[in-house]
Amino acid sequence: MMISPWDRWYSTSCCLCCHVRTGTIILGVWYMLINAVVLLILLTALSDPEQYHLTSAELANDLDVMDDANMCIASAISLLMILICGMATYGAYKLRAAWIIPFFCYQIFDFALNTLVAVSIVVYPNTIQDYLQQLPDNFPYKEEIAALSNVCLVLIVLLFIGCILGFKAYLIACVWNCYRYVSGRGTSEILLYVTTNDTTVLLPPYDDSVSIPPKQAPPPYSTATA
């Protein structure tokens, strides 16, 4: 019997021997906390722009790093992420498979973006040096990093991004296994419900069947022909 790759990699356990439901709930709560902290920082910066105003003149540029419009967009994205993570957490806890789909789609989108970053570094390796030149002068180990060759920098960055992509792929697999588990659990409950109801209709309870009076026996053949 042929086994599909999806079934071969399917597992109900994830890191630290946790169940995929538990892992998805922990992951959703963790993402919610991160985005809640980011949202709190952005709202605080919007409420007091003079205190948190950061210009890229400090970063050797002329334009502002983030104006109010960009901060509002970032706040909206953080709020949307909190909603998506909350839906995934609720879906994993209440066995609602459809609620996990938005978070899974976000993971795929985030993985694709990081893959594009890795591809762009391979295609345009000089972008690393350009990025290093934009860093402030007081950035730790800036001169030592800039002294490395382009090949060494590309390998280090690709190794770092590769580790991140591997970790993100593992989290995607955990959420996908949770979705399959919840979907299979819901399907089995529906089949059990239908089977139970069909059995109830076809086979009435024993007490009801005993209480039904037997039908009157037909008259003897000789009496009917007389």
Blueprint (SSEs and pairs):
Blueprint: H1 5-8, H2 20-47, H3 49-52, H4 68-94, H5 101-123, H6 126-134, H7 142-146, H8 150-202, H9 206-211, H10 221-225
Helix pairs in contact: 2-4, 2-8, 4-5, 5-8
Task: Describe the model.
- The structure is a single chain.
- The chain has 226 residues and is mainly α.
- The protein is built from ten helices and no strands.
- It has helices spanning 5-8, 20-47, 49-52, 68-94, 101-123, 126-134, 142-146, 150-202, 206-211, 221-225.
- The radius of gyration is 31 Å and the shape is elongated.
What would you say about this model in short?
It is built from ten helices and no strands. It has 226 residues and is mainly α.
Percentage beta strand:
under 5%
General shape = elongated
Percent helix: over 70%
- Give the uncertain stretches in residue-range form: 54-65, 188-203
How many helices in DSSP terms? Answer: 10
Radius of gyration from the alpha-carbon trace, in angstroms = 31 Å
Termini, distance in Å?
69 Å
Largest sheet: none
Key traits:
226 residues, 0% strand, single chain, mainly alpha
